[in-house]
Specification:
Layout (H helix, E strand, L loop, with lengths): L1 E6 L3 H11 L5 E7 L2 H10 L4 E5 L7 H7 L5 E6 L5 H6 L4 E4 L4 H22 L4 E6 L2 E6 L3 E7 L2 E6 L3 E4 L3 H5 L7 E5 L2 E4 L5 E3 L2 E4 L2 E4 L5 H11 L2
Parallel strand pairs: 1-2, 1-3, 3-4, 4-5
Antiparallel strand pairs: 6-7, 8-9, 8-12, 9-10, 11-12, 13-14, 14-15
């Protein structure tokens, strides 16, 4: 499941994106914003795969918005002005869509997104560990030892089979560095190791002695992933 948000000061433009997205079962628009500043606040605390971003907005432009966020998702620029296409590629945008957006162009852009995400996952597929900073120490953690990650502001707590470690990094910054085939974000504050799940009941995941509630915006992609493995 590809998670995305849409940012545009025109409600009609967002409605079109949401309508097209509803036709693609692998795409989940988890939030939308008419205010760029509210979107920036969201992006600082939430990891997503894709951003549909209007170039020309009254508060700040889409380009200025990208400059304000440290961890950048994949981006598809949306614009009514074709001349912005060249500028969009300066920011390594996956594509740009010219308004009014038709479904065929939308689907073509999404095929590019799927290819880019697939390449990212392939590059991470052979990783078995990560290095983290815990105070003055650098710790090597194997993915198989990690049960879950808990975000606490500007820190992330790594909960393993035998110990807990704390590293100065936000959970949003960390998510993109972890292999997707092992880890899944299920809440604004929690990322779990899929292989450590013991039970799922009443939207609550049991991992060892830990019980994690699934966040509302993460339910659809999480249960889609579980369904793919259900027998």
């Amino acid at each position: 499941m590809i998670t995305a948000i849409a940012i545009d000061d025109e409600p009609e433009a967002i409605d079109i994106i949401k309508f097209h997205a509803s036709k693609l079962e692998y795409l989940n628009i988890v939030a939308h914003f008419y205010s760029p500043q509210k979107a920036i606040d969201y992006l600082r605390n939430n990891a997503i795969d894709l951003l549909f971003l209007d170039v020309n907005m009254p508060e700040i432009s889409g380009v200025e918005l990208l400059k304000k966020i440290k961890v950048k998702p994949l981006v598809i620029f949306t614009t009514a002005y074709e001349q912005y296409a060249v500028e969009s590629y300066k920011f390594d945008a996956i594509d740009y869509l010219l308004k009014p957006i038709d479904f065929e162009d939308f689907q073509t852009s999404m095929n590019k997104v799927k290819k880019a995400i697939s390449n990212i996952h392939k590059n991470n597929a052979n990783d078995t560990f990560i290095f983290i900073k815990d105070g003055t120490k650098t710790i090597k953690l194997f993915y198989d030892d990690i049960i879950l990650l808990k975000g606490c502001g500007n820190y992330v707590e790594f909960i393993t089979k035998t110990k807990k470690y704390s590293s100065r990094v936000t959970i949003t910054q960390l998510v993109d560095k972890l292999p997707h085939h092992i880890f899944e974000r299920v809440h604004n504050s929690f990322v779990i190791n899929i292989e450590k799940i013991k039970k799922i009941e009443h939207n609550q995941i049991t991992l060892g002695n830990n019980k994690i509630s699934i966040g509302e915006s993460y339910k659809k992609p999480f249960y889609k992933r579980i369904k793919d493995r259900l027998i």
